């Protein structure tokens, strides 16, 4: 067992350590569906081209169906001795149908086989991720619509900056996740070429039809260079890069949820079923799901580094190093899947404390910029001077323990005698938000318009 596929050349079985370091079936069994799809396409092509007999092709296809049944039914014997999914399937095929099984590997190598299987898997993973990103975006849109007019403080440096709406804040993430989906889409377009038929590295002397297998497997075309086809994994790297950027976005939103949920902020809460308690501190309600979304980014970024490092410096064409491509990719997509699902669940039910957010939106002299803008607009002050006057007003309000809007007119007029009652109209957070009508600004009308744009696109 085990060395039978190349036993002709060998007189000894692999050492235990040879098998231990070489075996990958525990990981690459996840490629079984792609492996069967690739073998079916290859088999039909071989028959159509007259490279194998129709009867042999039928026997092979029948055997592959049995194998599919065994794998889905959980009875397939995955054996370490057969190293990887490709040899496990082939060995089982031989047990099931005998001699014709040996004809399936004509004009094929595990090198183009694994490159094909893995591309198919990553392509599916990108499709799944795009669908999940869209789900998350739609969920964010619903919540943004609900809160398009609800105030919250906007921050820079996590210091109160200017009032925004909660809807506007959520819509920022709709944009980010939209670009993330775009990156997966772009990666998918580039990866959708068929390596099958590159064989070991140089192509095949048999009259294979690579366009036929490409079409059967949903690829746009065959890859144009056989060495490239078996030796690059840039499609996986590009997808991991997209995953890493998306995970970064998820971790930022996760971090915000964590911050909003601290009692010191008190901006939002999650229902019991999406939080955890403490085994010792009875008062606790912890945002573990958000924290784990934040943390999954570590694994995903790690996967990108792992695979870029494996690939760097590899000479053409295939090297066994490339077998190490699958664990990071599987781990990254598993983590991203969980993170996206958990984030969508949290966004769907997060309960903003709109009163507390609105109060905070008006605190911290958040409308100071509006005062400066008023001085520019109404008194024609240069902005720098208006900034200075406003700074003095903030200083005075701080001394008196008042908000900017509570500062008596006489106090303001002491800074510039031309200031009138009208100024108070711009000093509320509502007015501040409502005034920001520039495209992409936080005015509720603008936020609703962007929500409508996205709805028509999703
Ligand atoms: N298990 C191998 C991998 O995942 C399959 C390709 C093996 N090719 C070879 N020439 N040894 O990369």
From TrEMBL:
PROSITE patterns in the record: FUMARATE_LYASES
Domain Argininosuccinate lyase C-terminal: 365-433
GO MF assignments: argininosuccinate lyase activity
The UniProt record lists the keyword Transcription: no
Highest taxon, organism lineage: Bacteria
Listed PANTHER family: ARGININOSUCCINATE LYASE (PTHR43814)
NCBIfam families recorded: argH (TIGR00838)
Protein name: Argininosuccinate lyase
Gene responsible for this protein: argH
